[in-house]
Target: Preprotein translocase subunit YajC
Amino acid sequence: MEWLIIVSILMFVIAPVMWLKPSPRQKRQMALRVSAAQHGVAVKVAKPPLHHFRGTMPAYRWHYPQQAPGPDFVLVRDSNASDALEPFHAGWRWRIAPLRPLPETARVHLQTLLERLPQDALVLESNAHALTLWWWESQTAERFITYLADIEPLKAALSGLSDRPPAKPLEAGGAVEDRVEGN
Model:
């Protein structure tokens, strides 16, 4: 009887520790995120740019160089897009289209990437700061690294195509000082 009590007490102590142990899915996601970070990808969990979406999802970001910001656009997979949105390529629609047409090299890299992305990739977004992939992390780290061969050239082709001109710092002897002296 004493042994039965001791075993049951040990079970009550060990059970919560087992619940804290990461599941195989969590281990795969951790390995994926570590591998992505090692390849220069910033991973963040945030609210995606989807209409009526509740909750958060992983966002993988490739930052543009500060001197060469990227264009603004949002592409959404057909499964999460309205039929009213303009179709683009391979089951993707423009939620926000770029202001100016993309150069042919950027367009080819973008189409190639969209054809290769897994089905759980829902949004590809670009803004002045970063190219962002919103997806549910269904792939392994090894498989994800294969996408870098398409993402890096796309990022390079989009760099410098900002919709907004970069702000220039005020120079000494500029128009502000001229106005003050003219008074």
